[in-house]
Amino acid sequence: MSKATTELTNKQTFDAQQIAEDVASGEKKIPQVDVSADYEASKEFSVSEVDRTGAGTQAAATATAAKFDISAPKDTKLKTQSSGNQDEFISMVKEINPEPEEVGAVSDELLQKALDKGTPG
Questions:
Q1: How many angstroms separate the Cα of 3 from the Cα of each of 8, 14, 18?
Q2: What is the mean pLDDT of residues 114-119?
Q3: This prediction's pTM
Q4: How far apart are CA 83 and CA 90, in angstroms?
């Protein structure tokens, strides 16, 4: 753990310990949290002033409006002709992904030359 993280953790622990001791001795009262009231108060900040009027809707529409004409999509009907011939499918696959060409034979002598060339020094 880094020094900064350790110091932060120790400080948080120290602060929590101090508050617990102060509460136990009566110097401080236990903090009361009203989540519902905090949530209701946060709603005021969740919407800007411009969004409370029609101007916000108009500004959003202007900002997101298309700058060019957009054509409507057209439905097209494509009718495929199924031949049921597996050989046609196999030939199509070979056109798309041809089999790799065969490489020459690798002899022990060729392998040793490659190892010698790859050795430093």
A1: 9, 16, 22
A2: 84
A3: 0.25
A4: 13
